[in-house]
Amino acid sequence: MVDNTQEPCNRLSYFGGYMKGTYNLPAPGKLESVRKLMNTWLVPNATQIPEDRLPALVRDQEAWRQSFPEVPLGAGDSAELLVEMRDDLRRMLGGGSGWPESFQRWLERFPPTVDVVTSAEATMVRHAPHPGSGVAGWMLAVIVDAIADETWFRLKRCPDCQWVFYDRTRSRTKVWCDMLAGDAGGRSCGTIAKVRRYRERQTP
Ligand SMILES: [Zn+2]
């Protein structure tokens, strides 16, 4: 029996996306670069040893440009600063206690500017990084807008493998990253809990 109850509107199964795992679907627009930054800390399946790829990326301008083509590396962007910010951003996911205070502190350090953007469709207020605020300023400006349009709250940290994924389910209730054994990462997150829930539904 196919269990369709978890994601009633998951159209990804049409092209096999769900079966391959949805853990690496991009977040919309610039938020994808924020997600990528958060995943520079990861636990590779092959080793199961946490790995931090950010310091090497900050040192290698070419590697940085390839990974984050739309985010210019500023003169003040040290690995130390960006690791600190990334780790705080990871802790913000899932609404962990104290996240508004932590975010407030970052905004006070790197306040974004506010622009009124007029297009044929609409007039909107958008945030932009303050000149010279580097990667931190860029990321924070994107997050302010993502909090306003609520896409930020679709970013989740898998409680199993710690991977940051974008939850595209209508109900916004996805917990695990859906990395499956057949994926490149080769693990299967949340399986035992999913099976347990499935069994609970079978009991009257
Ligand atoms: Zn996972």
Overall pLDDT score: 83
Global shape: globular
Mind summarizing the main beta sheet?
2 strands, antiparallel
Helix content range: 25-40%
Beta-strand content estimate? 5-15%
Number of helices: 8
Q: How many E-type strands? A: 6
Low-confidence stretches: 1-19
Distance between the termini: 17 Å
Helix-strand sequence: HHEEHHHHEEHEEH
Rg measurement, Å: 19 Å
Helix/strand/pairing class, anyone?
alpha+beta
Which ligands accompany this protein? zinc ion
The strands making up the biggest β-sheet line up spatially as 1-2
Could you describe the 3D structure shown?
The protein has 204 residues and is an alpha+beta fold. The protein has a domain at 28-162. It is built from eight helices and six strands, in the order ααββααααββαββα. It has helices at 17-20, 31-38, 54-59, 61-67, 79-92, 99-109, 134-148, 191-202; strands spanning 41-42, 51-52, 113-118, 123-128, 155-157, 164-166. The strands form three sheets. The chain has a two-stranded antiparallel sheet with strand order 1-2. A hairpin with a 6-residue loop joins β5 (155-157) and β6.
